[in-house]
Amino acid sequence: xxxxxxxxxxxxxxxxxxxxxxxxxxxxxxxxxxxxxxxxxxxxxxxxxxxxxxxxxxxxxxxxxxxxxxxxxxxxxxxx
Length: 80
Prior knowledge:
Layout: H1 14-30, H2 35-66
Helix pairs in contact: 1-2
């Protein structure tokens, strides 16, 4: 692994990112990686964590837009 900042795949889904994050946690918990490799995994994990948090935030914002204060679904673009 290199020392550069990890960049996410533009096509990565939330589920893929979460799966990879779980793999990274397992690898780091084993403690078998070199210090440099562990740091690269950590960087990748931070990027994946940020990606997942952003996806969840975006979905929450969208749900808030779709439901009014009374919990009723708000029509979108003429869906009534």
